[in-house]
Amino acid sequence: LPNGWWGFFLGTAVVMFSFGGIELIGITAGEAEDPDRTIPKAINQVIWRILIFYVGTMAVLMALWPWNEVGMEASPFVQIFRNVGIPAAAHILNFVVLTAAISVYNSAIYSNSRMLYGLSQRGDAPPVLKSLSRRGVPVLGILISSGITLIVVFLNYFFPGDAFLYLISIATCAAVISWTTIVVTHLKFRKKMEREGKTIKFRAPFYPWINYLCLVFLVGVVVMMAQIPGMQLAVPILPAWLLVLWLGYRSKRRKQIP
Predict the structure, then answer these.
(1) Contacts of range 230-238, beta carbons closer than 8 Å, 24 or more positions apart
(2) What does the alpha-carbon distance between residue 227 and residue 18 come to, in Å, rounded to a whole number?
(3) Residue 18 CB-half CA count within 13 A
(4) What is the C-alpha separation between 180 and 173, in angstroms, rounded?
(5) CB distance 92 to 78 below 8 Å
C-alpha cells in the first residue's frame, strides 16, 4: 500500500471478475458420483489454491522486484524470469496464459450448457434445449454458448482499446448478481433447515455474519466500479438488467396463475 488504501479498494473491482466462477463447483454436483464427499473437498481446495497461486505468487513477485517497476517494460512474470536468466520467458508465459484461458473457457462452456438445460427443464428457456446426446451431453447448449463467443470478437474489433474493460465490467456485474443470489439463498436455506430440524452436512463457517459481510463487500465492489471511468457505464446497467429479469419473472408468474 505505497499510496494508501484507495488503490487497494479500486483494485477489488478490477480483480473481482477473476474470482467469479468458483460458484460453478455447485453445478457439477448433479453429475458427481459422490457429491457429499467430492463437492466439500473441491470447495475447500479452492481456498488453498487461491492462497497459493494468487496471494503466494504476488508475495514472491513483490519480494523479487520493486513495486514501482513491475509491469513497466513487460509482463511482471516475464521480467522476473528474464532477471533469473530464462530468455524464453515470454514464450513460457504465453503458453501458461493460453492454457489458463482455455481452461476457463472450457468451464464456462460446461456451466452455460448445463444452465441452459436446467432452465429449459423449468420452462424458462426453449424446450429444444432439453435435448441430450446419447452420452447425456447438452450439445445444443454447448453450440449456442460457443457461438455467442463470437460477440467478443466483434467487440474487440469495434472497441479495440476498451473491449477488455467492458468485458471485465460485464463479468464483475454477473459475479455480483450471482453471489448476491447465492448469499441470500443460503440465508433462507439455513433458516428453513433449522425450522425443520434437519442436519446440514457441510456448514459455512461464521454463519450468518459471514453472509452479511459478503453482501457488504459486494455493495463495495459496485461502489468502486462507479469510481473507475471504464466501468462506470456498467453501474446503471446493473439495476436496469435486474429490472428486466424481474419483469420477465412477474410475467411468467401471471401466466402460471389460473
Answers:
(1) 230/162, 230/165, 230/166, 230/169, 231/13, 231/14, 231/165, 231/168, 231/169, 231/172, 233/166, 233/169, 234/169, 234/170, 234/172, 234/173, 237/173, 238/173, 238/176, 238/177
(2) 19
(3) 10
(4) 11
(5) no
In the numeric block, which cell numbers belong to residue 117? Answer: 438445460
C-alpha–C-alpha distance, residues 121 and 131, integer Å: 10
Cell of 86: 530464462
- pTM of this prediction? 0.77
Mind listing the pLDDT tens digit for each residue in 178-227? 899 999 999 999 999 989 888 888 888 898 999 999 999 999 999 998 88
Asked if 81 and 16 touch (Cβ cutoff 8 Å), the reply is no
User: What ranges in the chain are assigned the alpha helix state H?
Assistant: 6-19, 35-50, 57-64, 76-83, 89-121, 139-148, 150-158, 163-196, 209-225, 234-256
